[in-house]
Specification:
By secondary structure, the protein is an all-beta fold. The chain has one domain. It is about 0% helix and about 60% strand. The protein starts with a strand and ends with a strand. It is found in: Cell outer membrane.
C-alpha cells in the first residue's frame, strides 16, 4: 500500500437559477392555496477545495480520508424568502460548508478486511421560499460512525456486513409551524441500520 494525496479546486458560476415562490395569486385548482410559480432568476457561485489522502500505518493498517470545503453564495437579490427579505448573499440550500470522512482499515488475515469510518456533515441552511418557515432554517452539524467487514470465503465468493450510523445519531426535525418559530432541521435522518451482502465472481 502506497501513500497518496489529492487536491482539487473548483469554481462554478451559473445564471438563471431555478426558484419557486408565491405568485400572489390563488391556485385555480384550489383557490384556498397560493399559486406557486417556477422562474429563472439570480446567479449562484460555488467554489471550494477537495482534499484526499491515504496513509499506510502498518502492513495491515491503512488510514484514509477526504475533506470538502464549499463556499456557496446566491447573487442578484431576485429570490425572496417568505417574509419578503432578499436571499442575496445567502448560501445555496442544503449545501454544507464542511464535509469529511475518515476511514481506518485493518486486514488481520489475507481473506478478512475490516474498517471503521467516521462521517462528518457540517451545518447547512434551507432558505428558499418554500422551506416552510418565515425565513431561514438551519440544520446543525452531525457526525456518524460506521463499522464493516468483508470475508473472502473463496476466490469467487465473499461475504460483507456493516452497521451504519452505529450510535443511532439523528438530528431532530423541527416540527413547529411557520408562524410558531420554525427555523430548524427539515431533513429526516436514517438511524442505525444493518447491511449484509454476498458477492459471487465468475
Amino acid at each position: 500500500m502506497a501513500r497518496s494525496f489529492g487536491l482539487t479546486l473548483f469554481n462554478n458560476d451559473f445564471e438563471n437559477k431555478v426558484v419557486s415562490y408565491d405568485s400572489g395569486q390563488a391556485d385555480p385548482g384550489n383557490p384556498a392555496r397560493p399559486l406557486y410559480v417556477y422562474d429563472n432568476i439570480d446567479e449562484v457561485r460555488i467554489r471550494g477545495v477537495e482534499l484526499s489522502a491515504a496513509l499506510p500505518l502498518h502492513a495491515d493498517w491503512l488510514l484514509s480520508g477526504n475533506y470538502t470545503y464549499t463556499d456557496s453564495e446566491r447573487r442578484g437579490g431576485g429570490e425572496p424568502a417568505f417574509d419578503g427579505s432578499s436571499l442575496d448573499g445567502q448560501p445555496l440550500d442544503k449545501t454544507p460548508e464542511h464535509m469529511a470522512h475518515l476511514r481506518l482499515e485493518w486486514n488481520p488475515l489475507a481473506q478478512l478486511s475490516t474498517y471503521i469510518r467516521a462521517n462528518y456533515e457540517g451545518r447547512q441552511y434551507y432558505t428558499g421560499f418554500r422551506n416552510g418557515a418565515v425565513s431561514s432554517r438551519e440544520r446543525s452539524a452531525s457526525t456518524t460512525v460506521d463499522l464493516g467487514a468483508t470475508y473472502r470465503v473463496t476466490e469467487d465468493v465473499s461475504l460483507s456486513a456493516a452497521v451504519l450510523n452505529l450510535s443511532d445519531r439523528i438530528v431532530a426535525v423541527d416540527e413547529r409551524g411557520r408562524f410558531d418559530g420554525l427555523d430548524g432541521n427539515w431533513m429526516v435522518d436514517e438511524g442505525r441500520r444493518y447491511w449484509v451482502s454476498a458477492t459471487l465472481s465468475f
